[in-house]
Amino acid sequence: MRFHSGVPEFPFLLRYIAFGALTRGKQSAFDHKYFSKRHFPATGGSEFAYQLDTSMAAIRIRHNAIDTTLDQLLESSDTLTFLMIRDGKIVYERNYGQADTSTPLLNFSVTKTMVASLIALAIHDGLINRINDPIGDYLQDIPDFVKRRTIQSLMDMETGIRYTTHRKPSSDMIKMWFHRDIRSLLKNLQPSEENDMFLYNDLHLHLLMYLLEQLVGDVSDYFYRKLWQPLSPESDAFWGLDSSSSGFLKGDGGFVASARDLARFGLLYLNNGVSNGKQILPFEWCNAMGKKGNSRMDKEYFDLYRQKGHAWYNQCFVNERTWYRNFWWQIDQGKERNDFFAMGILGQFVYVSPSTNTVVVRQGNSWGLDGWWPGILEKVVNG
User: Do residues 58 and 71 touch, judged by C-beta distance below 8 A?
Assistant: First the structure.
């Protein structure tokens, strides 16, 4: 039996209990130490230039009816790193606690945008014909109702596959986080009662990672060779696995990287797929981010979150300014190309603002505030 910092890879219940005991039930940006990982070495990329904006620290932010500064907010919100890059240069940088902007940290659902980028590359390489193809055109050993789902619908988090999120071992969320063989679980998925609505569902990521496995073989190698290495990362990165024996990449939230290297990823999208003078991701794919198109923003589409009493509904969906497409959150600002962002459960962000030529990365050890980080980041970036 293999252990990682005291947590065994199996059996499932022992892994779940050991993880809960060692972490005291609190998720952390350092939780990757409890899982097997793939390693992606740094390439010694050039460091960012600095053009510090000393006025940033004193930016006034109204939060919970209290006026505060950006510095004060970050200090009080369990933030580990905060990095702002404008016009390709660092204008503001803060580090707290056990990390700095070169420390690899677990980024949870920011991982989803890495998966989205791999899908874009697979389409560009001719391995996937169209994003609107049913996933059953490529996978045969999954339930029939899942085969009918298009790749696009999975990437937009449309309902159709059951996904329970309570914290007990019987929930789909917990099973997928702690099971040592995620592939085996994909053969027994169940339909949901809801249709044509938004439901944030990590199972979609596992299905798409399984799809990528069938198309490219070693997804780790494909990721590093086609996407990560060309960014010239300055720190080592990692990607968590379900177990050492299975070797399945945790596409829902297992990617580990530093703030500076996440900023490089954000700049890749800001610059329409170009990094270090080379076209890494397709121009059309990156340039479409922040463009509204026909994506739904109406609160009825997000009504499951009202029914659950989920904080996202009042913080985000009720204003009908937010849409979700290709695993990126996007904000309607009435611009040709609006701000968009990747978001992790503990307040990990890669926030991209095309109109101000800015990328912001925030990594935290918890969400850290009673409020909506994207609204704060929008204000910080746009003034």
Answer: yes
